[in-house]
Amino acid sequence: MTYILGLNAFHGDSAACLIKNGAIQAAAEEERFRRIKHWAGFPSEAIRYCLAEAGIGLGDVAHVALNQDTTANLGRKLAYTLLKRPDLSLVLDRIRNKRERDGVETHLERAFPGDAFKGKVHPVEHHVAHLSSAFHVSPFDEAVAVSVDGFGDFASAAWGVGRGTSLSVEDRVYFPHSLGIFYQALTQFIGFPHYGDEYKVMGLAPYGQPVHLEALRKLVRLEEGGGFTLDLHYFRHAKEKIEYEWENGSPSVGTLYSDALVDLLGPARSADEPLEQRHKDIARSVQAMYEEAFFHLLNTLHPRHGLDAVVIAGGCGMNSVANGKVTLRTPFKEVYIQSAAGDAGGAIGAAYSVWHDLGGGRGPVMDHAYWGPHYSDDDMAVLLAARAGEIAAAGCAVAKATDEASLCRDTAQAVADGQVVGWFQGRMEWGPRALGNRSIVCDPRRADMKDILNRKIKRRESFRPFAPSVLREKVLDWFEIEGEVPFMMQVYQIREAQRPRIPAVVHVDGSGRLQTVTRETNPRYHRLIEAFETLTGVPMVLNTSFNENEPVVCTPAEALDCFLRTKMDVLVLGDWVVRRE
Which CATH code is given to the segment(s) 3-126? Predict the structure, then answer.
């Protein structure tokens, strides 16, 4: 019996996963335990959870796989340092980071005193881990594999082909050229300064026109082999040390763009300044430029390999708008993007890369994302009893459903009545999306539901859309593309005739970032949506993450806390229901 612990550590979205004989046992991001978004550092609590879920100790783990190899592309690093002569502080910062990342055994010893790790640590090149995380859990025995992100191990992109258990890397884009850095720099320029804010640009883009695309083509140049280069005149990272820090686990990145970008596009927006049409047009142009480069790569790779399936990973693999256009803008016919395409997913990729290097066979397909903590009915009962006074003082009543059918029927009725429902079930999702186990569900038919949600709970920017969870068997009735989208990683156009029926989940451009729900992978959530369809004729619910400007809730206590401090109407904890009266 072989246990492999995969880690994304010393970086934003730190995470851990555990595989046993090639099958995932558990996976979770550290932020869910630390309660700090994108938590960076060593994922000790995620490791602790994974071990507990499997009922083993650290001493039972044979291998630890880290999704970073500081020796990778070493020749490139040395050549760049000698030829380009970057600022000394940049070189010293890289040396400091290397020392920290080399100390995995020390971090494990510190976090688990008395439970010694006796196995071997395997560094796995960052993009190899990304490619493995996409291909080795995919449904394809053969596929083109693509990883695009900011930077990792001196590269920003890599691509190749997966066949069976093997994965060959054909080429890479090296530092300082990066589509991820391009997108992040322009995200900062538009006035979204926080780590991980790129999704706000995607949400804002449909409100603008790509009038700055020609200007942005000066920043990104497409290369004949499928790759791309940046005009470094517009960026700072190639020569200067850009601050990448984490204070109390919260990552932050210094300004990436140079004054030349201001000369090209005009003044940058501060976070507290109003959004103008110019900013919306820049956002649309940024998304258009990214798609132009991304599809240039995919359209180069398809004829080269003649394969119709592609798997995608890396931070840019979270660009659900571009992902939804792959089968429209390229010859690829099938796409797979796992639920944690970004750096957290490198934990799974590193683990599988080591497993296959050891001669292990292909594991099961990852067709769901429910790999996190779960809680029993008794856990819920104890919590609700302990806090009964607080619940009653908030004007809430507690009841237990007699069976699943009535639970789903009554919850669907509450949703149809316009109530906001916190839905907490089973194992927590792996990746950034709530997928029906740590979700807030609402009626997609109500045009005012976005405002209701933002007023009662979310308090987020008005331009950001909410997503639909739709029965898998009904996708083509409502969307223009047929497809499996279990992880909410693709945006599809909603059929024009159906848009007036579900205004709460239709974005300004007529699109929706859907999640397809099957009876096999989440029977209770599927049953809830079926019950809603029986009541309304609409086979979907609005689904947003169960949180309030914090990481998605992990425990029943966090769910109850979020319910009580917001104006949520109903909380469903397993079979228990808490209602405001």
Answer: 3.30.420.40
